[in-house]
Amino acid sequence: MTEETTAAATRQAASATARAEDAAAGTSQAGVPAPPGGGREARDQVTVCMPAEGAYLSVLRTATAGLAARLDFTLDEIEDLRIAVDEACAMLLGQAVPGTGLECTFTLGRDLMTISVSVLSQAGRPPASDTFAWTVLCALAGSVEAMVGPGNRLTIVLQKSREPSGSV
């Protein structure tokens, strides 16, 4: 991976984070007022697209940490999410069609982050849910689902709730 490629990927992640900041301020990416943030309603959605190659995963881990920090997740929760995204991507990259892209969508709620990671799959089958890696993924993320959509698009969806702070 060249420095130019790394810089481009970093700029994409920074741009996605900036769009998330704009939306958290009350507008969506299209400049439309964001829905009121009550309960677990989505406040914003950030999508990061990159080549389906392991060399780019550091950008995704950084975006995950930045967005989780915006929602006031604890340092432990942020690290759990970073590792969970890395694990989910490792499962997906093993089945990805060479030369295609990986797409990660972060849906930010008031106290919930949903992360959907997908690739175009060669085999078109979800990862086995009876493996150690899947068990670790569930422990880190809280809620995990895998599905195959049209055109063998393999998706893993992670949901992590922010622990209550204890303050009123």
- Report the structural category: alpha+beta
- CATH fold node name: Heat Shock Protein 90
Strand order of the largest sheet: 1-2-3-5-4
Count of spatially separate domains? 1
Element order, helices and strands?
HEHHEEHEE
CATH second-level architecture: 2-Layer Sandwich
CATH superfamily: Histidine kinase-like ATPase, C-terminal domain
Q: Which regions are unreliable across 5 or more consecutive residues at pLDDT < 50?
A: 1-11, 13-39
Describe the protein's architecture and organization:
The protein has 168 residues and is an alpha+beta fold. It has a single domain, classed as 2-Layer Sandwich (Heat Shock Protein 90). It has 4 helices and 5 strands; from the N terminus they run αβααββαββ. The chain has a 5-stranded antiparallel sheet. A hairpin with a 2-residue loop joins β2 and β3. The radius of gyration is 16 Å and the shape is globular. Mean pLDDT is 80; it is low at 1-11 and 13-39.
